[in-house]
Amino acid sequence: MGLKSKLFKTGVVLLLIAVLPGLPPKTVFPFRPISIVPARPLAGVLAPNQLLNGAERLHEGGLQQPEGIAVRGNATYVTVYGGKILELGDQGSVRTVAKLGPDCVGTYSERICGRPLGLDFDTKGNNLIVADPYLGIWQVHIKTGDKKLLVPKDKAIIVEDREQSSSSSSEAARKLRTRQPNIPNGVAVARNGDFYWSDTASDFIFEDAIQALLCNPSGRLLHYSRAEGRSRVLIDEVYGANGVVLSPDESFVLVGELGGQLIRRYYLKGPKAGTHDVFVDGLPGAVDNLNGDATGFWVGLVIAADESNPSFVGMLAPFPNLRRLLVRLFVLAEAPFRLWYDATGSDFALWVTHHIGHLGGLVPLFPDRGTVLRMDWEGNIVLALHNDDTSSHVISQAVPVPGTDQLLLGSPVNQWLGRVKLTPDTLAVLKGGKVDRKQPATEAPSREEL
Q: Per the database record, which ranges form the Strictosidine synthase conserved region domain (predicted)?
């Protein structure tokens, strides 16, 4: 058989896999072209600099994928692989606040033992509210570690938003909109104790993030009522719903889009209450966690994207048949190992199913640039902090340490917590001042200063 004949037959098989109806997976929304606004040029406020270069590695080797960060006083709380929430003291101590799932059998068993992502301080008790993509959303007491499951993945009570509900809606449409959560991710707690949370996607679990991002958007922003014990859908079809943050007056809530490289806004008060829009788009990377204060908020860009390094999601978004083909190939490759694991509990089969489609496997292909943004509550980018030495790229969250010039950097792949020293110019801008051009903003702190 000649090469041309082999290529032709291969092409026919791939075409059939791509277009034949009824093949797995069955997705929530059909494959359609997706339009993503291109990343803004790295110019002006987004111009490259080295303000995140030389990040110090805290607890190197002792923190497995410190994704989420919350700081109160002298204590830093981080979510790490293995279902753990840790408290880091200012003298180098590490205390396990709580363990959400059973013990891990390896770094490939996160679907069993948990991998908490977003967290926020409770406003109705000395607790943390923690979202785990496999184990649901939990209330965890900071001191005792007592935990309570608030939003289970399989028995969550979810209702429609009042604006979405309609007497003309079919039962099938209502059931679709109120489907069970699949990847609880970000969380932001309101003053009354309710919280807003994101469900990243509905078609695949967290360890199959590549497949999830190749499908059409199925993420959601939801509101959880503490009094009622149920969640209300605010926005559906969010492309990789991620970090969540409330405005200081709680007039709106923001949710980051990993795939869309944008941030959406849902209005909670005022004449636009119950509606939503795009707060900012064209960001130079995939949006991860958000955290704010009185004057603005920080945006972690976990995968950089720009003209020289286009997003793989953005490149494939306009081509639904190609995305469907890739998803089906992933499913076919993983299927025998899933059956093997389900039948025997084989560790090797679990290892294979974990790595097929896991976004972490693409990290070597990510651009070297690491970036965090500081934005105001009007949607303006106030500061962009970059690095070009990979000491802190793949950044999930940026959190300043109150009363210091330090910025903590979380990551879904590193085995340490990053820390950089902010320059005087950066601190001046954060305080509402002007940049002193006598001290170039691109000048990075030395390792000795850190």
A: 185-271
pLDDT tens profile 206-223? 999 999 999 999 999 999
- SS3 letters across 234-265: EEEEECCEEEEEECCCCCEEEEEECCCCEEEE
Q: What is the CA radius of gyration of the chain?
A: 22
Residue 434: band (very low, low, confident or very high) from pLDDT cuts 50, 70, 90: very low
pLDDT at 119 over 50: yes
Cα separation of 159 and 181, whole Å? 12
Phi-psi region of 189 (alpha: psi -120 to 50; beta: other; left: phi over 0): beta
Q: Which CATH architecture has domain 22-160+177-431?
A: 6 Propeller (2.120)
Mean pLDDT calculated for residue range 338-366 = 93
Q: What share of the chain is helix, strand, coil (3-state, %, to 5)?
A: 20, 30, 50
In which residue are the tokens 């702190």 written? 445
Beta carbons within 8 Å of 184's beta carbon, 6+ residues apart: 117, 131, 132, 133, 136, 137, 151, 153, 197, 198, 199, 200
What is the Cα 178 distance to its own chain's centre? 21
Domain boundaries, the chain: 22-160+177-431
In the prediction, which pLDDT does 56 show?
95
